[in-house]
Amino acid sequence: MLSGQLYAAILAEFNPLEPVGPAPVYTFSVGSWQVIISNHMFMVSVAMLFLMIVIPIAVKSKSMIPRGIGNLVESVCMFLREEMARPLLRDQTDKYIGFIWSMFFFVLTLNLLGMVPSEKIIYLLTGKVNRFGGPATADIYITGAMAVVAFFMTHISGVRRQGLWHYLVNLAPKVPWWIMPMIYFLEVVTMFVRPFTLAIRLFANIIAGHILLAILIGLIMVFKSYFVAGISIFSIVALSLLELLVAFIQAYIFAFLSTLYISFAVSSEH
């Protein structure tokens, strides 16, 4: 009877959103302000430090032919520049490729770090329950902040390239004057919708995969069956491999759409 009540209590407390939700890990005060550092903010900091250390080491090679991770990073950078950015930006590619590389590797690193069960690893090593981990790109505030950066980069680039007046004039395509007000209005709306699509697309794809993984783990506790457990474990492994692919795809899509929006802004023909 007691074991049944304990089992029911565990199921009642099971929440598939808990592994992906934000949680405070550190709090400090600055004057009258209380600053809360969440687990997702912590993962963003880890990703920044990782990239600031690993990328310079990877590309710093004295040999003409890079090896190992340096070769991998160079191959990815070359692909993004020549196959993705140059067809869109043309002669402006080298001017913006640094931003595009930064966005791609930052999103990719956050996605991959979100797949590492760092909380469980720390618990096994220390025996203390913690929240030092989690998928930062499953936080709409994180993806929203990156989308805002892409938004400002897009329009600042357009203004610098064309000038403020010409940029505003060329915001809408050339159409008959009698439908220009409607088209211009739609272009302005689209301009502000684009960062929302960037943020929500990345957020939704990452959070959906992690919630599904949590649900599959929960099925083992619900059915208490070796058959269901075997199917769940197989599904978890397969879904984890799919999530690894999704991590790369979503980073590429975020970088590609950012490049596309910049190409619209720096070109007077769109």
- Could you name the ranges where pLDDT drops below 50 across 5 or more consecutive residues? none
Order of helices and strands: HEEHHHHHHHH
For the terminal residues, how far apart are their CA atoms?
Answer: 70 Å
Counted up, domains total 1
Helix fraction? over 70%
Compute the gyration radius: what is it?
23 Å
The number of helical runs is 9
Mean pLDDT: 87
Query: What would the principal axes of the Cα set say about the shape?
Result: globular
Count the strands?
Answer: 2
Strand order of the largest sheet: 1-2
- Biggest sheet features: 2 strands, antiparallel
The computed structural class is mainly alpha
Q: How big a fraction of the residues is strand?
A: under 5%
Structural commentary:
It is a single chain. This protein is mostly helical. It has one domain. Helix content is 73%, strand content 5%. The protein has nine helices and two strands. The chain has helices at 2-13, 39-59, 69-89, 93-113, 118-126, 140-162, 164-169, 180-223, 226-266; strands at residues 24-30, 33-38. The protein has a two-stranded antiparallel sheet. A hairpin with a 2-residue loop joins strand 1 (24-30) and strand 2. It is globular. The mean pLDDT is 87.
List strands and helices in order, with pairings.
Blueprint (H helix, E strand, L loop, with lengths): L1 H12 L10 E7 L2 E6 H21 L9 H21 L3 H21 L4 H9 L13 H23 L1 H6 L10 H44 L2 H41 L4
Antiparallel strand pairs: 1-2
